[in-house]
Amino acid sequence: MTPAELPRTELLARLRAQVAVKESRIRQAPFPVHPELAALLPDRGLRPGSAYSLTGAGALLLALLAEPSREGHWCGVVGMPDFGAEAAAHAGVALDRLALVPDPAEQWLAATAALLEALPIVAVRPTGRVSEGDAAKLMSRLRDREAVLLVDGPWPRAEAQLSVSNLRWSGVGVGCGYLSSREVTVTVSSRRGPLRRSARLVLPTPTGHLAAAAAVEPISSLRAVG
Protein backbone atom coordinates (compact mmCIF):
# COMPACT_ATOMS: atom_id res chain seq x y z
CA MET A 1 0.00 0.00 0.00
CA THR A 2 1.40 3.41 -0.98
CA PRO A 3 1.35 6.43 1.41
CA ALA A 4 -1.44 7.97 -0.68
CA GLU A 5 -3.62 4.90 -0.04
CA LEU A 6 -3.16 4.84 3.71
CA PRO A 7 -6.01 6.00 5.97
CA ARG A 8 -5.47 9.55 7.18
CA THR A 9 -5.03 8.55 10.83
CA GLU A 10 -2.42 5.92 9.98
CA LEU A 11 -0.54 8.28 7.66
CA LEU A 12 -0.43 10.98 10.33
CA ALA A 13 0.72 8.46 12.91
CA ARG A 14 3.61 7.43 10.66
CA LEU A 15 4.57 11.06 10.05
CA ARG A 16 4.48 11.83 13.77
CA ALA A 17 6.67 8.85 14.52
CA GLN A 18 9.26 9.92 11.95
CA VAL A 19 9.22 13.59 12.93
CA ALA A 20 9.33 12.89 16.67
CA VAL A 21 12.87 11.57 16.30
CA LYS A 22 14.04 15.09 15.42
CA GLU A 23 11.49 17.50 16.90
CA SER A 24 10.96 18.46 20.53
CA ARG A 25 7.64 19.75 21.81
CA ILE A 26 9.54 22.46 23.72
CA ARG A 27 11.07 24.92 21.26
CA GLN A 28 12.21 28.43 22.08
CA ALA A 29 14.66 29.37 19.34
CA PRO A 30 13.35 30.41 15.91
CA PHE A 31 13.74 28.03 13.00
CA PRO A 32 16.84 29.06 11.01
CA VAL A 33 16.83 30.90 7.70
CA HIS A 34 19.57 32.09 5.35
CA PRO A 35 21.66 34.88 6.98
CA GLU A 36 20.52 37.39 4.33
CA LEU A 37 16.89 36.71 5.25
CA ALA A 38 17.66 36.54 8.97
CA ALA A 39 18.84 40.16 8.79
CA LEU A 40 15.36 41.18 7.60
CA LEU A 41 13.17 39.16 9.97
CA PRO A 42 12.30 40.50 13.46
CA ASP A 43 13.43 37.27 15.20
CA ARG A 44 16.26 36.54 12.75
CA GLY A 45 14.38 33.35 11.90
CA LEU A 46 10.90 31.82 11.73
CA ARG A 47 9.20 32.23 15.08
CA PRO A 48 7.45 29.05 16.38
CA GLY A 49 3.69 29.45 16.57
CA SER A 50 3.61 32.09 13.83
CA ALA A 51 2.33 32.57 10.28
CA TYR A 52 4.14 34.47 7.53
CA SER A 53 2.51 35.94 4.44
CA LEU A 54 4.49 35.74 1.17
CA THR A 55 3.92 37.77 -1.99
CA GLY A 56 5.64 36.40 -5.08
CA ALA A 57 6.50 33.19 -3.21
CA GLY A 58 8.28 30.86 -5.68
CA ALA A 59 12.02 30.93 -5.02
CA LEU A 60 11.46 32.88 -1.79
CA LEU A 61 9.41 30.03 -0.37
CA LEU A 62 12.12 27.52 -1.31
CA ALA A 63 14.75 29.72 0.37
CA LEU A 64 12.69 29.80 3.59
CA LEU A 65 12.25 26.02 3.58
CA ALA A 66 15.88 25.25 2.76
CA GLU A 67 17.64 26.05 6.06
CA PRO A 68 15.17 24.25 8.36
CA SER A 69 15.23 21.29 5.98
CA ARG A 70 19.04 21.18 6.04
CA GLU A 71 18.90 21.02 9.84
CA GLY A 72 16.69 17.95 9.65
CA HIS A 73 13.23 19.45 10.12
CA TRP A 74 10.29 18.08 8.15
CA CYS A 75 8.34 20.45 5.87
CA GLY A 76 4.96 20.20 4.17
CA VAL A 77 3.51 21.95 1.12
CA VAL A 78 -0.26 22.18 0.51
CA GLY A 79 -2.19 23.43 -2.51
CA MET A 80 0.75 24.06 -4.85
CA PRO A 81 0.46 21.72 -7.87
CA ASP A 82 3.20 23.72 -9.61
CA PHE A 83 5.68 23.13 -6.77
CA GLY A 84 8.90 21.92 -8.41
CA ALA A 85 10.67 19.11 -6.57
CA GLU A 86 13.82 19.53 -8.67
CA ALA A 87 13.99 23.27 -7.94
CA ALA A 88 13.38 22.54 -4.26
CA ALA A 89 16.27 20.07 -4.18
CA HIS A 90 18.58 22.61 -5.85
CA ALA A 91 17.55 25.19 -3.24
CA GLY A 92 18.56 22.81 -0.45
CA VAL A 93 15.23 21.24 0.55
CA ALA A 94 15.60 17.58 1.55
CA LEU A 95 12.99 15.74 -0.50
CA ASP A 96 13.02 12.75 1.86
CA ARG A 97 11.70 15.07 4.60
CA LEU A 98 9.07 16.79 2.45
CA ALA A 99 5.32 16.00 2.47
CA LEU A 100 3.30 17.23 -0.54
CA VAL A 101 -0.46 17.66 -0.89
CA PRO A 102 -0.54 19.23 -4.37
CA ASP A 103 -4.26 19.71 -4.98
CA PRO A 104 -6.57 19.45 -1.94
CA ALA A 105 -9.15 21.68 -3.68
CA GLU A 106 -11.59 23.09 -1.11
CA GLN A 107 -10.09 20.85 1.59
CA TRP A 108 -6.91 22.94 1.88
CA LEU A 109 -7.74 24.00 5.44
CA ALA A 110 -8.26 20.42 6.64
CA ALA A 111 -5.11 19.24 4.83
CA THR A 112 -3.04 22.04 6.34
CA ALA A 113 -4.38 21.43 9.84
CA ALA A 114 -3.62 17.71 9.50
CA LEU A 115 -0.01 18.31 8.46
CA LEU A 116 0.47 20.79 11.31
CA GLU A 117 -0.35 17.94 13.69
CA ALA A 118 2.86 16.23 12.58
CA LEU A 119 5.20 18.68 10.85
CA PRO A 120 6.96 21.78 12.24
CA ILE A 121 6.83 23.84 9.02
CA VAL A 122 3.96 23.87 6.52
CA ALA A 123 3.51 26.05 3.41
CA VAL A 124 0.07 26.56 1.90
CA ARG A 125 -1.61 28.35 -0.98
CA PRO A 126 -5.22 28.87 0.18
CA THR A 127 -8.12 28.54 -2.24
CA GLY A 128 -9.97 31.84 -2.20
CA ARG A 129 -10.20 34.39 0.59
CA VAL A 130 -9.15 33.31 4.08
CA SER A 131 -11.69 34.14 6.78
CA GLU A 132 -10.75 35.35 10.25
CA GLY A 133 -12.36 32.21 11.67
CA ASP A 134 -10.30 29.84 9.52
CA ALA A 135 -7.13 31.76 10.32
CA ALA A 136 -7.88 31.68 14.05
CA LYS A 137 -8.33 27.88 13.99
CA LEU A 138 -4.97 27.33 12.33
CA MET A 139 -3.23 29.89 14.55
CA SER A 140 -4.43 27.98 17.60
CA ARG A 141 -2.98 24.80 16.10
CA LEU A 142 0.28 26.60 15.31
CA ARG A 143 0.73 27.84 18.86
CA ASP A 144 -0.12 24.44 20.34
CA ARG A 145 2.36 22.60 18.09
CA GLU A 146 4.96 25.43 18.03
CA ALA A 147 4.95 25.15 14.25
CA VAL A 148 5.35 27.71 11.44
CA LEU A 149 2.93 28.42 8.59
CA LEU A 150 4.19 29.98 5.33
CA VAL A 151 1.27 31.32 3.28
CA ASP A 152 1.44 32.11 -0.43
CA GLY A 153 -0.85 35.13 -0.30
CA PRO A 154 -2.43 37.35 2.37
CA TRP A 155 -3.09 36.00 5.86
CA PRO A 156 -4.93 37.68 8.77
CA ARG A 157 -2.62 38.62 11.65
CA ALA A 158 0.54 37.33 10.01
CA GLU A 159 3.71 37.73 12.04
CA ALA A 160 5.33 39.37 9.02
CA GLN A 161 4.77 39.95 5.31
CA LEU A 162 7.57 39.12 2.86
CA SER A 163 7.43 40.38 -0.71
CA VAL A 164 9.59 40.15 -3.82
CA SER A 165 9.84 43.06 -6.27
CA ASN A 166 12.12 44.75 -8.82
CA LEU A 167 13.06 41.54 -10.61
CA ARG A 168 16.07 41.51 -12.95
CA TRP A 169 17.15 38.33 -14.73
CA SER A 170 20.71 37.62 -15.92
CA GLY A 171 22.17 35.18 -18.42
CA VAL A 172 20.62 36.16 -21.74
CA GLY A 173 23.00 37.93 -24.11
CA VAL A 174 22.19 39.63 -27.42
CA GLY A 175 19.60 37.17 -28.70
CA CYS A 176 21.18 34.10 -27.11
CA GLY A 177 21.89 32.42 -23.80
CA TYR A 178 19.84 31.09 -20.89
CA LEU A 179 18.32 32.76 -17.84
CA SER A 180 20.71 31.78 -15.05
CA SER A 181 20.04 34.01 -12.04
CA ARG A 182 17.70 36.71 -10.83
CA GLU A 183 18.20 39.80 -8.68
CA VAL A 184 15.24 40.84 -6.55
CA THR A 185 14.35 43.20 -3.74
CA VAL A 186 13.03 41.31 -0.71
CA THR A 187 11.03 43.45 1.72
CA VAL A 188 9.81 42.39 5.16
CA SER A 189 7.09 44.18 7.14
CA SER A 190 6.47 43.03 10.71
CA ARG A 191 3.36 43.63 12.80
CA ARG A 192 5.66 44.14 15.80
CA GLY A 193 7.44 47.16 14.38
CA PRO A 194 6.82 50.28 12.25
CA LEU A 195 9.76 49.70 9.91
CA ARG A 196 10.09 47.78 6.69
CA ARG A 197 13.44 46.17 5.97
CA SER A 198 14.62 45.54 2.42
CA ALA A 199 17.69 44.11 0.73
CA ARG A 200 18.82 43.37 -2.80
CA LEU A 201 19.40 39.62 -3.20
CA VAL A 202 20.15 37.08 -5.90
CA LEU A 203 17.26 34.61 -5.80
CA PRO A 204 17.91 32.16 -7.25
CA THR A 205 21.63 32.02 -8.05
CA PRO A 206 22.75 29.83 -11.01
CA THR A 207 22.93 26.92 -8.53
CA GLY A 208 19.43 27.55 -7.19
CA HIS A 209 20.39 29.13 -3.87
CA LEU A 210 20.17 32.61 -2.32
CA ALA A 211 22.99 35.16 -2.06
CA ALA A 212 23.55 38.86 -1.52
CA ALA A 213 23.57 40.85 -4.74
CA ALA A 214 27.17 41.67 -5.66
CA ALA A 215 28.21 45.31 -5.69
CA VAL A 216 24.75 46.49 -4.67
CA GLU A 217 24.36 48.67 -1.60
CA PRO A 218 21.79 47.27 0.89
CA ILE A 219 18.51 49.17 0.86
CA SER A 220 18.08 50.99 4.14
CA SER A 221 15.09 50.47 6.39
CA LEU A 222 12.00 52.39 5.31
CA ARG A 223 9.09 53.58 7.43
CA ALA A 224 5.99 51.61 6.54
CA VAL A 225 3.24 53.47 4.72
CA GLY A 226 -0.20 53.12 6.28
Observed structural traits:
about 230 residues, alpha/beta, Rossmann fold, 2 domains, 10-stranded mixed β-sheet, disordered C terminus
The string of secondary-structure elements, in order, is: HHEHEHEHEHEEEEEE
In the residues, how many domains can be counted? 2
CATH level-1 class of the largest domain: Alpha Beta
Low-confidence stretches: 1-6, 215-226
* Proportion in helices: 25-40%
Ends distance: 53 Å
- The CATH architecture name of the largest domain reads 3-Layer(aba) Sandwich
The biggest sheet amounts to:
10 strands, mixed
CATH-assigned homologous superfamily of the largest domain:
P-loop containing nucleotide triphosphate hydrolases
What is the mean pLDDT?
A: 83
β content, as a range? 25-35%
